[in-house]
């Protein structure tokens, strides 16, 4: 039998700039009722951008929920009126100044299926050239270049805990390995 | 310079069973003030449990925020008074009935650093034997076994979008590859 839960009621809790929280009653498949806490999110995009020296572009920034400085792949929230890929190109440019070419999808990521509806679209590209960086006014970020092999090592060593970064770095490494295999 | 943001005020928005939402004012490094929306979460655990036939145990369940049935590695929220590893053993047993051995860490995962403080602890283990499955009363789950290589393929094909699942499956595949290399 296919599993399902049906919304019985949904109460708005918080309408923020980023998240929208609701507290729902759901009818389960046995007819019982369970409460579900849901964080609504516009979705996001994350880009693994490869330089001609086989490095990936990372951003280093303070992440308020963790009170920690994290190194992550460039990423951002989806803005209305743009496709995920257009959002990806915009975020990469804003955060790093890089303009990419040969974009490829690395799939979607569901960060926290228990309580959030966020979907992050992952992309790979090659850096074509650089223009002017223009981060949001409340973003203070450093740009770091890390060789792909070193980035994989950092994922395995726990130095890059961000979910989208771990997934996109490992997928990029596998993609490049396959490309090399195909070139042989 | 090291980046930082300092909490100026924090307003409680919602105290749920799973999440705790606050709306904070933060002072940025240039002295300006920005609003930060934060989802507090107790943290979680996720286990890649390998059978003697080189399959991983997965659970298939309805995920309310996405209104979708997802296939994920066994996982759950951290409970107080237990270490992350103890939580992992408990969740694996509850959701699949499996008891593991040779547990190894696969690192930590920060699902959504922009707004959530959740940390998911990832583990690998081998299935030692099976006991009685006992999922939570509001959980309806099927157990599925998928060969590791097939699971990697499904991650790359987009069939396993869950972040902890993608990361732990790819790390498990790399771990097993290294073990085989070492055995040679």
Brief summary:
Chain A is an alpha+beta fold and 184 residues long. Chain A contains three helices and ten strands; from the N terminus they run βββββββαβββαα. In chain A, the strands form three sheets. The first copy, chain A, has a four-stranded mixed β-sheet, sandwiched between helices. Chain A has a three-stranded antiparallel β-sheet with strand order 1-2-3, with no helix packed on it. Chain A has a three-stranded antiparallel β-sheet with strand order 6-5-10.
How would you describe the overall organization of this protein?
The structure is a homodimer of 184-residue chains. Chain A is of the alpha+beta class and 184 residues long. Chain A has 3 helices and 10 strands; from the N terminus they run βββββββαβββαα. The first copy, chain A, has helices spanning 84-96, 148-157, 163-183; strands spanning 6-15, 20-27, 33-40, 44-50, 55-63, 68-72, 75-77, 98-109, 120-130, 142-147. In chain A, the strands form 3 sheets. Chain A has a 4-stranded mixed sheet, with helices on both faces. Chain A has a 3-stranded antiparallel sheet with strand order 1-2-3, with no helix packed on it. In chain A, strands 6-5-10 form a 3-stranded antiparallel sheet. In chain A, strand 5 and strand 6 form a beta hairpin. In chain A, helix 2 (148-157) packs across helix 3 (163-183). Chain A starts with 5 loop residues before the first strand and ends with a helix. The model of chain A has no long low-confidence stretch (mean pLDDT 96). Chains A and B meet through strand 2, strand 3, strand 5, strand 6 and strand 8 of A and strand 2, strand 3, strand 5, strand 6 and strand 8 of B.
